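Hi team,

Filling in the usual template for the complex we talked about on Friday. All components are listed, including any nucleic acid strands or ligand strings, so the model treats them as one assembly.

SUBMITTER: L.P.
PURPOSE: interface mapping
COMPONENTS: two
RESIDUES: 295
SEQUENCES:
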Amino acid sequence: MNKLRALVVDDEKSQRRSAERLLEKSSFDVIATVESGETALKFLGLTEDNDVMVDVDLILTDHDMKGISGYELLLKLKNSELNNVPVVIMSASDDEERIKKCMDGGALMYLVKPLTIAKVTNLHEAIVAAGPSHGKWCTLLQANGVMLLD
Amino acid sequence: MHRLVANTRKSFFDQGYLDEQFVQLEELQDNSNPNFVEEVVTLFYRDSARLLYNLDQALEKRPLDFNKLDSLMHQFKGSCSSIGAKKVKIECTNFKAYCNARNAEGCKRTFHHAKREYTTLKKKLESYFQMLRQVGPTEMACRPR
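RESULT (copied from the run log):
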């Protein structure tokens, strides 16, 4: 069975590395780690200068980042062709209003940092239980100006 | 040497320098990621230097912006918690309490304490990792607290 493909977004390198390793330990294939929401959108093929969408099963993003926040990234993703891809927010804050806002915004889960093996294992189970995301099997091809959905 | 490494590690927990999160990092280390803990700690110290600088700058401003100080310290505390830096985290919590109380002197004092604990831990961990490199990777196989 193919591993679930994950993208990690966090503006601190130590946190990206930890999250990456935790996800690997939980049988995810971490396809990339990026340092901002803007870079994430570009990587995912959701910007004007890069519209080649990436096959991804999970986007794990920090909430507090320079530039657009993890919450703002969540809203942009839910308003995009990747709206079925689970987004998980992580934050050192356990503020209930923030958690509710993120869950209302469409987050699959909100993980309070620091991340642990147990928390990420729960995440893997939650994604498997949620079923396949339609977005991940869309591959955009352009041939002679025609968009082909695979 | 092995016993020295084990005792050094144990002392970090006994003396309250590190908490369970450090053990989480150790459990992520394996043959394909043999220096993971040292790697993450090194990255932490690199990342957090910027946060501390921002806090230093913010503490120089007059009047103090306590909301900004709280926000900056929240980030720093979050980073510290990711490697299990327990004593540093405690000082961060104290700092945030002084921020909420709009107590400038308290903020400066606890920030000084936080930096001291941060530097102390850095030196201890550097020595520890150096010892680990000398004994080799087998030392990480058994990690009682």
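MY TAKE: The radius of gyration of chain A is 15 Å. Chain A touches chain B through 18 residues (CB under 8 Å).

Thanks, L.
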